[in-house]
Structure formats: C-alpha cells, structure tokens
Amino acid sequence: MGERMLLRGNEVIAEAAIRAGCQCYFAYPITPQAELLEHMAKNMPRLGRTFIQAESEIAAISMVYGAASVGVRTMTSSSSPGISLKQEGISYLAGSNLPAVIVNIVRGGPGLGDIAPAQSDYFQATKGGGHGDYHMIVLAPSTVPEAGELTMLAFDLADQYRTPVMILADGMLGQMMEPVELPEPIDVASLPAKEWATTGAKGRDPNVILSFDLDPEVLKRMNLALQKRYCQIEAKEVRYEEAATGDADILIAAYGTVARISKSVVRMARAEGIKLGLFRPITLWPFPYQPLKELADRVKTVLTVEMSAGQMWEDVRLGVAERANTPFYGEMGGVVPTPRRILSEVRKHAS
Amino acid sequence: MTEGWMEVFMPKGMLIIDKERCKGCGLCIVACPHPVLAFSGELNRSGYNVVHMERPEACVGCGFCALTCPDVAIEVYRARVPA
Amino acid sequence: MPVSTEKMVKVFGRPGSLTEARFTYCPGCHHGILTRIIAQTIDELGIVERTVGVAPVGCAVFAYLWYRCDAIQASHGRASAVATGVKRANPNLIVFAYQGDGDFASIGTAESIHAANRGENITVIFVNNQVYGMTGGEMAPTSLVGQKTTTTPDGRDPALFGYPIRFSEMIAQLDAPVYVTRQALYDTKRIMDATKAIKKAFTNQLEGKGYSLVEVLATCPTNWRMKPTEANKHVAEVVTKVFPLGDLIDRG
After folding, report:
1. Which candidate from A71, A202, A207 shows the least CB-CB separation from C49?
2. What is the pLDDT at residue A273?
3. Are the beta carbons of C89 and A26 separated by less than 8 Å?
4. Are the C-beta atoms of residues C8 and B78 closer than 8 Å to each other?
5. Distance CA C40, CA C42 (A)
6. What value of ipTM does the predicted structure carry?
C-alpha cells in the first residue's frame, strides 16, 4: 500500500489511472474536472508518458481511439457537455472492441447548465448516448477512495472485455478532498499482450481495427459477438452495496454522492425508529436488477433519490416492478439534496 | 559489323495486362507515348471494355501506362534487342 | 513481333505491400494511383512491418483492404487525431493518415490543423478532388466556384457558400510542419513528382523530422461527370489554377 495522501476526487482518479499504467491521456479542459487534467499534465511527461491537451473533446476521444488500437492503456476525462461530444467516438470504441477509460465528472445540464454537481447523465451513460447497440461498463464511485479503486478496476475491466468503461462521478466528488491510500503502481509489462493490436505486422497477418462492414450478415455477426460479451459482463461484473437492509421496511436507492449522503439519512431515520436501508448500485451498467428484486420482495417502498429528473429511477422501477412502491425524490440544476430534506421524503413514504 | 560503327540496341517492351482488374478507364492509352494500347472491345466479368496491346511491336517498355493505371493492372517487361 | 517475357526484365510490377484485393474505386479514379504510390514507397523504405495506416470515412474507407500493414478505420474527420494517438502511443510505428476533402478539410478541420500545429511526427495524405465522392457528389470546401454538385446544382455561388479553401496554404502558415506540398497525378510527370513527394513525406517521419502533408489533386470522373481522360485534363488546365502545384514548405 502506498502512503496516505489528502486528495481531491479529480486528483485521485488521475493518480489511480497513472498507477494502473495509463500510458496516454488526452483531454480538453472543462469545469469541474480541471484538476484531473492538471494532475496528468504535471505527472505524465515526467514519467515518459503521453499527455496532450487536445483541441476538443472530439479530438481527445479520437486520440484515445488511436492509442487504444496500439494496445496501450489510455484515458480521457470530461464533464457532461464534453461527454456529449464524445458519443460518436465512444460508439466507435465499442464497435471496434477497444479498451479505454472515459471519466465523466457530471455537472448540471442540459445545455451549458452550470458547474455544480448532477446525476443527469445516467441515461447517456447506461442507455447508449452514442449510436448503435452497445454498452459501456459504468462504474459509480461515492467516495474519493472508491473513485481511485474503481478507476484502477476500470482499466482491468476494459482490457479484459475489450470495451470502453466509464467512471461516472459528479462535480462534488471531483472537488471534495479525503484521505486516500492508493496501491503501488502496477507493472505494465506484466499485463497480457494484446494480440489484436496494431503494433506493426511483423511475423503475423495485419491487424485491422474497425467497426464496419457493408454486408448486413457480417455486421449482424459483429453485433452478436458484442451482445454475447455484454451478457458475460452482466453475469459476472455486477457490483452494488447494501446498508442496513436486513430488517428494512423502506429502502433508498441511490448512487454516487447521493448514496453517500443517504448513509447519514439511514442513521437519522433509524434514530427515529424508521427501518430505513440503502441500496447502492456501483455498476450502473450492468445494473444490479437481481439483488434489487430480492430486496424489493422484503420491503414496502424503494425510494429513488437522484440529482436528476428521474433517470436511474426507471431502472429501479424496472427491477422492482410490482413488488414495492417506487416513489422518487430528485433535485435538478446542480442542487444537492441535504440529509434533512431526504429524511422528510423518507418520512412521507414510511408507513 | 563494319569497323567504326556502334552497335545499337532498341528497348523492347512487353505488357501483361490483368483483364479482370482493368476497368477500361483509358488513362493508359493516353499515357502511352507510342500507339501501343487501345480498347479491345472485349468485356471482362465486370462488364468493362478492357485494354490490350493493339500494336505490341511499338512498345518500348517505358512503363508510363503502368504508372498511371489506377488498378495496378499492368506489369511491364523490358529487353534490349538489336536495332 | 511479340517476345516472350521469359528473357525480359520486369521493370514494373505490383508492389509487395499491396494485397491482392481489387480496388473498389471507380474507373479512372486517382485514389488507385495514389494507393499504388504509397505501397511502392512502403516497399522501398522497407517499413511494411512498422506501418499503420489510418483510413478515413469516404471513398477510401476501404483503404485497410489494400495494404499488407496494420490499419485503423477512423471516425469521419478524425484520422489526423487518431494518427496522433497511434504515434504517441508507439513512436516506432510509421503512421500515415489518408483523408479526402470532407474528412480532412471540412469535418476534420480542427484535427487536421492541430496535428500539424503540434508538429506530430506523422505523414498526412490529403486527397483533394473538390467533391464528396462516397455520398454521391456533394460540394466540398474545395469545390470550385461555379462547380455543379448535388448540393450546388446551379454551381457553387461564393455569395452563399464561399470560395474553395486552400488548406495546404493555411497549414504552411504554421511554425511546426516540416513539409507541405501540393501534387497531382494527371500525367506521367506529375505522377513521378508526386512519387518523390510521398517518399519525402514518409522519409521525414522515418528520420523523426516532424509533420508532413501531401495534398494531391485527384479526379472524380463519376461525380465530375467526365471521362477519366477528360477529368485528367480538367485538373491540368483548370484545377491547378486554383490550387497551384509545388512545395509550400520544405524544412527537411
């Protein structure tokens, strides 16, 4: 284990990426992830790695596409409007079976929005965003240390499944500072070789990275291969956390910063005698439908709390179905719900 | 050979044209400095009117046809024969 | 009298780094000539095992089918940025981006300029045929004034859509690029000059000199509604007056 450091969420993600062996980082400045860029700008060159401040978010994701094709670990980061620009590039990464890590420090939208935290990019991250039938693995940290852990995991999952992986955080997590202990840097040379990468066709047939075939039967097979991989990911990579669910009557379903805030709400509610529990998805895709279904059988209400107009709420309703009530409390525009405000919603729904 | 006279050789060229690659674009005909090439009237499997050496004796193997062929359909051979 | 090629020397053959695939380009399209020149250059420099080609979106989208080297098919306009990512990830690779008017000079404008401005050690080939071939013949930023295309059916009107853009001249204003040249393929002499230019552009990268751009005036007989030989004449007599041939920068 490395030394204990006091780091901002943005910095921890950058440092974790470096320790995970990120060889090339390309990004365009946008608030509230500037510190991520700055940490990379300072540290990547002195490690002999690549940092480019690209001319746009589109250029950055395209550079990621090139570096990923060569088989190196590569990452870009941005915030909501910039992630919108990257959607075509993400679709290409997915369609071309390329590993890469994309970080979204979500801010209020739509449009220019503001620079305060939000969770209104859930649909974009989990339901597509880009064109075509594809998914990204989406990991949602709720603390600064977890942001570091999930970033390192993201690179492993990306390589293992040859797919882009998104870290979906928010402006609050990006800015807050917490003590963190990060693991030692991994030995990149020990990573398995990527036989499919465009490393120069020496002693082998040429490798081609593409997401394209004009023959519908061939493209269908390419799509089926992707779907099969997504089924494997759904079977093996679901991650979630439960807190105080053993005897709960009512659950909060929340992720990221809101889940962290909701942990205080659980304590406050229990002190009043409300049997409140928390269900916190960590992988937003693949979404933990099965554990949620099982919990929903035992509770009366699953209250979704999000900094959005109700995006993860749809997946909660899909998972819970008729098993329990599924009310919603959301804040938009970058307003962060306070524990007291969430508790008053819980009281409304607790019988 | 009479004393004092030079031996003179002429370059002699020969083309091998891949009929199925030829798209009958005609650029080689214009590129050729000699009246070697012309459309043959024969259609290949793709329906193109392929080019052929109409006057092979005029070919010196300069290769201009091959340089311009957009389908790399022409191979050029050269020998030296006494003039 | 036909002589058997047995006793003859082959003076021109198919470059080794071309695959056997038949080009999907239209009859007379200059993409084919340029592809052959690039393959020949790769052969002469002995770099097929180190080369990575970046294919655009456009008629040359299938570029990865023609060469025996690794290749990447990039999203529209971004080949210069993709090539940047490849080269930075592994500087030992010889990377070339091959782009048409739309890819390089319209949707890819920012990526094209900034790869050049950063002086990325890559080779960029820009095929300028003043029209969008693959999508059926629309106006390109390089289309000539008065040129009839599917989106300028009455001819390009500069009052509405501006003038043909001379992108190489713009790139030549930047401090970083080491070689910027405009070439053509409409006759044997131009083909030979273009061949030298392409070789220089690749050699610059091999020697670590920096960014090279070769703009190639090409024909699109199909969308110009001309026979291939007429199209060649059009480049020689009309297009070169708007896009002058020659080296704009040569700092190699």
Report:
1. A202
2. 97
3. no
4. yes
5. 5
6. 0.94
Touch between chain B and chain A (3+ CB pairs, < 8 Å)? Answer: no
pLDDT tens for A146-166 read 999 999 999 999 999 999 999
Residue B33: C-alpha distances to residues A183, A232, B59 (Å): 72, 64, 9
Q: Could you tell me which of C17, C54, C12, C66 has the C-alpha nearest to residue C191?
A: C12
Residue A202 to residue C123: CA distance in whole angstroms: 21
Flag whether residue C43 sits within 8 Å of chain A, measured between CB atoms.
no
> Going by C-beta distance under 8 Å and a sequence separation of 6 or more, which residues neighbour residue B13?
B36, B59, B60, B61, B62, B76, B77, B78
Query: pTM of the prediction?
Result: 0.95
Q: Is the pLDDT at A2 greater than 70, yes or no?
A: no
Instruction: Please tell me the distance in Å from A160's CA to the nearest CA on chain C.
Output: 20
Q: Which CATH number fits domain A240-349: 3.40.50.920, 3.30.360.10, 3.40.50.20, 3.40.50.300?
A: 3.40.50.920
For B48, the closest of C1, C10, C27 (CB atoms) is C27
- Provide the residue-wise pLDDT of chain C in tens; the chain has 252 residues: 445 666 789 999 999 999 999 999 999 999 999 999 999 999 999 999 999 999 999 999 999 999 999 999 999 999 999 999 999 999 999 999 999 999 999 999 999 999 999 999 999 999 999 999 999 999 999 999 999 999 999 999 999 999 999 999 999 999 999 999 999 999 999 999 999 999 999 999 999 999 999 999 999 999 999 999 999 999 999 999 999 999 999 997
List the domain boundaries for chain A: 4-236, 240-349
A71 to chain C: which residues are within 8 Å by CB?
89
Per CATH, A4-236 and A240-349 having the same topology is answered yes
CA-based nearest distance A73→chain C, Å: 9
Residue A351's pLDDT is what? Answer: 66
Chain C residues 75-94 within an 8 A CB cutoff of chain A: 75, 78, 81-90, 92-93
What's the confidence (pLDDT) of residue C1?
42
* Alpha-carbon distances of C38 from A125, A153, C195, rounded to whole Å: 41, 42, 8
Nearest to C17 by CA among C3, C1, C37, C2: C37
User: What is the Cβ-side half-sphere exposure of residue C173, based on CA atoms within 13 angstroms?
Assistant: 6
Picking from A331, A333, A329, the residue whose alpha carbon sits closest to that of residue A343 is A329
- CATH code at position B64: 3.30.70.20
Contact between A235 and A107 under an 8 Å Cβ cutoff? The reply is: no
Sequence-separated (6 or more) residues with CB below 8 Å from residue A37: A27, A29, A53, A77
For residue A206, the SS3 value is coil
